[in-house]
# Entry
Amino acid sequence: MVDYPDSLKRLINELARLPGVGQKSAERFAFFILYEDREAGKRIASAIQEILSNISVCSRCNNIAESDLCWLCSDPKRKKEFLCVVEQPQDIIAFEKSGAFNGKYFVLGGLISPLSGVSAAELPFGKLRRIVEEDGVKEVIVATNPTTEGDVTALEVKRALEGLCVKVTRIAKGMPQGAAVQFASPFVLRDSFLRRIDVD
Ligand SMILES: [Zn+2]
# Structure
């Protein structure tokens, strides 16, 4: 059977594994690079190389970082008494744009989702508890998306911090149910932050 050369198949297969990219789009990207813009291919390859060598994960909060700690964890002006728990690093950028928060962050890296097979055991709740204890955090603000998974995860954060002297709140549902923090406007995020409620 006639097929593409192995190197081309490998690229298509790797591209097709990216979120939101299927086999068809992967082929289109690969042929665009081969036929239309080989220079773009080199630039993409070098940009990927660069982020892989320069950007890693913050050892404290799981945000992206250019050294052991991210720019937020190493900033002494941020109030460590307030810790905002988010699903992913992109959410931090969204909150920073809103200007509503001057504390520290913690990235869970996912939400509890029985449908996708993600259980509480797979999320870093132990590390979260350790940071809350070590930093003497007074309030943990859970800023997960207003979805069922986001709500279940907020309850689990509360459970993981049981016995510690810390208040656990959740950003208000200013956003429509099912919306994503990452894409909410700075105004909406600021409002949700200011009207946060206790998790119970
Ligand atoms: Zn950090």
